[in-house]
Amino acid sequence: MIELPISTDITIRGWGDRLDEMATGYEVIDYKTKSGAELFEERNNLQLRMYGLLFDDWLRRRGQEGRVTKLTFAYLTGRGVELRSFDFTDTDRQATIEEIKTINRQLKENWNQYQVNPWPCSCTSCSRLLEKMEARADEWAQAMQVKTAQASLLKDLPF
């Protein structure tokens, strides 16, 4: 698991499927098992861009030269493997960080407005934390369905 602080109150965590070294840098490859590339807004996929940020930091901390310069979806379909690749530039990096900060701000505004926080506790070591989080997320989603007419921000979030 790679952790990268984006700001004083935001840390992203994750690990991509694959990192390949190329002559021009590194490529992050994310395998998808859905049936067809049309199911994803590929160019705007926040998860894949976050993997790029995480692997950049991981490479830096390992003392490796180079950065992630390419992001690729590898769709595993009945027709074989379909690849969709994108450049990953400094502009993309900054836009990804800004998008993460915007989503964080929007979530906090909604939590404050509706007095609903989806996290079950402040503990990070509870053995049943994932189970509690999933149950709490289901409760929160059901409560929010009633309020979504008033919460136009929610429809703009990418998840």
Features:
159 residues, alpha+beta, Lambda Exonuclease, Chain A, 2 domains, two-stranded antiparallel sheet, 6 strands, disordered C terminus
Question: Mind sketching the topology for me?
Answer:
Layout: E1 2-7, E2 10-14, E3 18-22, E4 25-32, H1 46-61, E5 68-77, E6 80-87, H2 90-114, H3 129-147
Parallel strand pairs: 4-5
Antiparallel strand pairs: 1-2, 3-4, 5-6
Helix pairs in contact: 1-2
Determine the CATH topology of the largest domain. Lambda Exonuclease, Chain A
Shape: globular
At the first level of CATH, what is the class of the largest domain? Alpha Beta
- Sequence of secondary-structure elements: EEEEHEEHH
Integer tally of domains: 2
Secondary structure: helix percent: 25-40%
Give the strand tally: 6
Q: Would you tell me the structural class of the helices and strands?
A: alpha+beta
Describe the structure.
By secondary structure, the protein is of the alpha+beta class. The protein has two domains: 2-115, Alpha-Beta Complex (Lambda Exonuclease, Chain A), CATH 3.90.320.10; 117-159, no CATH class. It is 38% helix and 26% strand. The chain has helices at residues 46-61, 90-114, 129-147, and strands spanning 2-7, 10-14, 18-22, 25-32, 68-77, 80-87. Strands 3-4-5-6 form a four-stranded mixed β-sheet, with helices on one face. Strands 1-2 form a two-stranded antiparallel sheet. The longest helix has 25 residues, at 90-114. The chain is globular and about 50 Å long. Mean pLDDT is 77; it is low at 146-159.
